[in-house]
Amino acid sequence: MAVWYRAADFFLSRLDAEAAHGLALRALKSGLLPGQRSGDPPSLGVALWGRRLANPIGLAAGFDKNAEVPDALLDLGFGAVEIGSVTPRPQDGNPRPRLFRLSEDRGVINRMGFPGQGLDAVRARLAARPRRGFVGVNVGANKDSADRAADYVACSAALAAYADYLVCNVSSPNTPGLRTLQGRVELSGLLRRVQDAIAAKRVPLVVKIAPDASDDDLDDIVAVCRDLRIDGIIVGNTTLSRPASLRSPRRTEAGGLSGTPLTALATEVLRKTAQRVERQFPLIGAGGVGSGADAYAKIRAGATLVQLYSMLVFEGPPLVGRIKDELLALLARDGFSSVADAVGADLR
Ligand SMILES: Cc1cc2nc3c(=O)[nH]c(=O)nc-3n(C[C@H](O)[C@H](O)[C@H](O)COP(=O)(O)O)c2cc1C
């Protein structure tokens, strides 16, 4: 851990987790955090949907829900940044406390419930920024919505013009009933409506699924995505499962679990998804990435882009550079000259 972050962590780790997140956002807005000093080596570059990303390490949704600091996050060295989830109308989310560090387990439990400023505020911020880097927009539904699919359509249509890719997040465990949208009929209906709404915009459309999906669920999800020629799947969101190995007293809090306790499960579900997708479209791997080895395992299991959030809570921004250094060393050790050569290596 870098010295400057060790000092900041001393204070942040004593704060309520959501207060610490608020301070991190303010620090990013202030421009005071040190960014990445040099460019990434060409061997870390990846091609995705006809674009070139400097590296395959992305920031997962949920950190910058309202698109307040996408550029400061890109400057930390991420190859891609995903903002959201965005809902059509502003909403408060669940009562606090709703975000918990499981320090003993290097995990996080959250039941945020999509708090956010809503579509109009996010659109205004995205419209005001000069386009640069690779910024994805993740959309969801309001808790009290009568037609959830209509919420995804509204957000996608309004934000497609500002997005390098769009994500339909049908896997948050904290909006009751949302995960039923992963069912074959519901998912197909939802995605068709979104595709129609953004047909003129030519932005890649991706689905984010739960790591709790069963093999049968995966059969259905992948069949729908292949049938509709969806551009990618993110595997995945937080888990409702609670591994027996958890030691933190907060392990019984309700919500989605992320971070280290999720790593193996999420990589396994990614691998099963990749087996079904058969390289028809790219995959994005998220869940418990905290080292170059974790990122490399996801790439070998079929991910072109890897995302992380929770381990930033414990390691801070220096984590991004460390993961990239470790990943480079692992690629070299195994004789891969680029990330692309290693994608899906464990599936062959
Ligand atoms: C506090 C918190 C808020 C999150 N909010 C969202 C969200 O709004 N939309 C979404 O798709 N995923 C959200 N996620 C899930 C993350 O994007 C990611 O898929 C998951 O945490 C697994 O990655 P990680 O172990 O690196 O955190 C959230 C995660 C956390 C910890």
Structure keywords:
348 residues, alpha/beta, eight-stranded parallel barrel, 12 helices, 13 strands, 16% strand, binds flavin mononucleotide
Notes on the protein architecture:
Helices cover 37% and strands 16% of the residues. It has helices spanning 3-12, 17-30, 70-75, 119-128, 148-159, 184-198, 215-227, 263-277, 292-300, 310-315, 318-333, 339-342; strands spanning 46-48, 51-53, 57-59, 80-86, 99-102, 107-110, 135-139, 165-169, 205-209, 232-235, 256-259, 283-286, 303-308. By secondary structure, the chain is α/β, with parallel strands linked by helices. It starts with a helix and ends in a 6-residue tail after the last helix. The chain is built from twelve helices and 13 strands. The protein has an eight-stranded parallel β-barrel, surrounded by four helices. The chain has a three-stranded antiparallel beta sheet with strand order 5-6-11. A two-stranded antiparallel sheet has the order 1-2. A hairpin with a 2-residue loop joins strand 1 (46-48) and strand 2.
